[in-house]
Amino acid sequence: MKNHNFHEALPMRLSRYFLPVLKETPSDAQIASHRLMLRAGMIRQQAAGIYSWLPLGWKVLKNIERIVDEEQQRAGHIPLLMPTLQPADLWRESGRYDDYGDEMLRITDRHGRDMLYGPTNEEMITDIFRGHVGSYKDLPLTLYHIQWKFRDEVRPRFGVMRGREFLMKDGYNFDLTKEDALHAYNRHLVSYIRTYERMGLQAIPMRADSGPIGGDDTHEFLVLAETGESEVFYDANVTDIKLGQRDIDYDNVDECRAVMEEFTTLYARTDETHDADEFAKVPADRQRTARGIEVGQIFYFGTKYSDPMGATVQGPDGKPTPVHMGSHGIGVSRLLGAIIEASHDENGIIWPEGVTPFHVGIVNLKQGDDEADGACDALYKSFAALGLEPLYDDRKERAGAKFATMDLIGLPWRITVGPRGLKNGVVEVTSRRTGESEEMTPELAVAKIAQIYADL
Ligand code: 5CA
């Protein structure tokens, strides 16, 4: 299998894990993803819109972060890390310190200096750029980080979906010309679609409003879901467009533009930019009004920050030129909620293979039976040796309780091991998504599951 893991595989026995599942459905959680994340012991609320990530939730968050990271690097973007706390002075330079309003958490340090917990990083990255880059020869450049943000939302709700503290990937492109910056915009659009598809999500780019970030060109990426906070209007045919396994050359300007056009030509807008006259031109049987979850947004805003902050490079003519910029964000922690909204049933979560916290669950129907214990141990070791992470339910619990836990936490594959099957030399492999089971030898079960992940 392609092992992109930055960490070692972590096979786990449930008896030693920390998985505080809740028996009751939390009454204050209004949407499925919030309820399921609490019930599956993934998060714990510490204050309004502020969560601890418990081991299972943390593992999924890391998986999502890894996919985002890989796709950014595939597109040629360079990772770094900026702090969560920022000096207010940088924001005074851009004029946003006063403009940003009550969503900004303002802090004063012991010396009386104004600080803030970053809601986004345009100013700071522009400061880094102006301090270290001086020539057009160093362009194009796109820097990004995956870092916690704080926005003092009036109504934090729906769990990680609208948090106050949340994890975002934010990237910033620096280019000599508007044309180059628009290539960066298209490159981000393509890489985002690829990122979401790897997580089993269809996120439709829709023309949107730029809000406090600024600029004229902006698209939001929306996952259709009844519980989504945005109202969206689109041509039904947009949902047929997929990137799939296409090999994209991110340096190829025409290729990226063609993909951008393919995904953004049909009508698809959020309520902020919805235009009834334009929408009326879509054939009536294809007009759709729905709700969506915004899992990302890209912006081109030209010299909005580079001008006031003096981020210039020496152009080919030797003259200082302000750089053209854009910023590009993915709601990393929100994505957990979006994935669950898109993929669950009445029994619990159904993780897509790309982000699942464990690759496979092993359920021992008769803990303490030598043969069953031995077969489970052997499966566990085989998966671990392949770099896969099984979660082995080795507790002395009833079968029903074990199945309920596995269904709730949503591992896409389950292997059930019991004395009866073992007499015939078989275990049962069950798909969480379809509920279908198949009997096979333990060796074939390992091979089947290993193949599924190798094909991702
Ligand atoms: N600087 C730009 C792009 S880097 C920016 O901040 N864009 S943003 O405001 O659109 O945020 C990027 C993404 O973060 C959003 O698309 C959304 O998915 C996520 N996000 C924004 N606010 C929250 C929140 N309160 N809770 C969870 N995720 C959020």
Automatic annotation (TrEMBL):
Listed GO biological process terms: prolyl-tRNA aminoacylation
A GO molecular-function annotation: ATP binding
InterPro entries the record matches: aa-tRNA-synt_IIb, aa-tRNA-synth_II, aa-tRNA-synth_II/BPL/LPL, Anticodon-bd, Anticodon-bd_dom_sf, Pro-tRNA-ligase_IIa, Pro-tRNA-synth_IIa_bac-type, Pro-tRNA_synthetase
Main localization category: cytoplasm
Subcellular location field: Cytoplasm
Domain of life: Bacteria
CDD domains: ProRS_anticodon_short, ProRS_core_prok
Role played: Catalyzes the attachment of proline to tRNA(Pro) in a two-step reaction: proline is first activated by ATP to form Pro-AMP and then transferred to the acceptor end of tRNA(Pro).
UniProt catalytic activity: tRNA(Pro) + L-proline + ATP = L-prolyl-tRNA(Pro) + AMP + diphosphate
GO cellular component, as recorded: cytosol
Quaternary structure annotation from Swiss-Prot or TrEMBL: Homodimer.
E.C. designation(s): 6.1.1.15
Domain Aminoacyl-transfer RNA synthetases class-II family profile positions: 49-352
Similarity annotation: Belongs to the class-II aminoacyl-tRNA synthetase family. ProS type 2 subfamily.
Record keywords, A-Z: Aminoacyl-tRNA synthetase, ATP-binding, Cytoplasm, Ligase, Nucleotide-binding, Protein biosynthesis
Organism: Celeribacter marinus
Name of the protein: Proline--tRNA ligase
